[in-house]
Amino acid sequence: MGWAARLALAYRSEPWHDGAQRTVLQSRHEGPLRILASLYPESPAVCHNVVVHPPGGIVGGDTLRTEADLSEGAHALVTTPGATRFYRSSGELAQQSVDARVAAGARLEWLPLETIVHSGALAENRMRFALAPGAEMIGWDVLALGLPAAGERFDRGRYAQSIELPGVWLERARLDAADRRLFDSPLGWAGNTVLATLWFAAGAPLVPTRRDALLDAAREAAAGSALAASAGASSAHAEVVVLRVLAPRVEPAMTLLIGAWARWRALAWALAPCPPRVWRT
Q1: Measured between alpha carbons, how far is 165 from 99 in angstroms, rounded to an integer?
Q2: What are 84's strand-pairing partners?
Q3: pLDDT value of residue 154
């Protein structure tokens, strides 16, 4: 029997001192998945939270579910204290899912640290973000296969992932360790072991000038990165802008994503970057 864990996050905006607003969180958990505290390092309007999974890894038979509801005017930044790890399975599937609903006027920053898929894992990771008209979000996903620095290659197992903005964008990947054409070909991963994706999304079409500015900001961040040759930004739908990069290691990919996130935050929301302290520990 694996772990069965569920975390429900409900954010709302309420009046605070001198006419200001404060985002507050009410959370419920079942099993080993929880929030330790709500932090306000930049202002009462933005609630920072760290999702903690005490077992430290996900194995076959585990099912982890996170649900988030943001009411009108709420702003939440959610991250993790370290990498999410899918370990070798004896045959059962390990599953993780995120289902978020963001109301009009609310903002979500979904910024977990990397997901590491160990050799022999059988895993599925699903993310779904439903944005009402007037809602916006910045999210990222950093996927690392194996542990190259430790000499562990992802040479056995399977991993499936989906990122969905209903009716706007659906990203699906089914990665089989045996598919060396995908991982080694210059038309695939080109020998890299990390795929990182950053997106800015809105619940209604972005004004063209704003959409272009977000694209330009992502491209400028990529051009100044050590990964410029393997990064690209695009907007296949009027409600989403995507930056994607392939990398041999997590660190340069994360550096690029943080730089682009900071540019988007300032450009779209007039907010200075406020990296969670846990990113530096």
Answers
A1: 10
A2: 115
A3: 96
Do 163 and 171 contact (CB within 8 A), yes or no? Answer: yes
pLDDT value at position 81?
96
pTM, two decimal places: 0.97
DSSP state of 73: T
Per-residue confidence (pLDDT) for residue 1, from 0 to 100 = 67
- Select from 39, 26, 250, 248 the least CA-distant residue to 140: 250
Say if CB 107 and CB 78 are below 8 A apart.
no
- What pLDDT score does 2 carry? 83
The backbone region for 251, taken as left when phi is positive above 0, alpha when psi lies in -120 to 50, beta otherwise, is alpha
pLDDT score of 55: 87
Instruction: Round to whole Å and give the CA distance between 115 and 118.
Output: 10
Q: What is the mean pLDDT of each run of 10 residues along the chain (281 residues)?
A: 92 92 97 94 97 93 97 98 95 97 98 97 98 98 93 95 98 96 95 98 98 98 96 98 97 98 98 95 78
Closest CA to 36 of 14, 73, 9: 9
Contact present, 197 and 261 (Cβ < 8 Å) = no
Phi and psi at residue 85, to the nearest 5°: -120, 125
Q: What is the domain range of residue 30?
A: 4-280
CA distances (Å), origin 268, targets 189, 237, 264:
31, 17, 6
**Rounded distance between C-alpha atoms, residue 30 and residue 7, angstroms:** 7
- Measured CA to CA, the distance from residue 25 to residue 19 in angstroms comes to 19
Quote the number of domains for the chain. Answer: 1
Do you know the residue count of the chain?
281
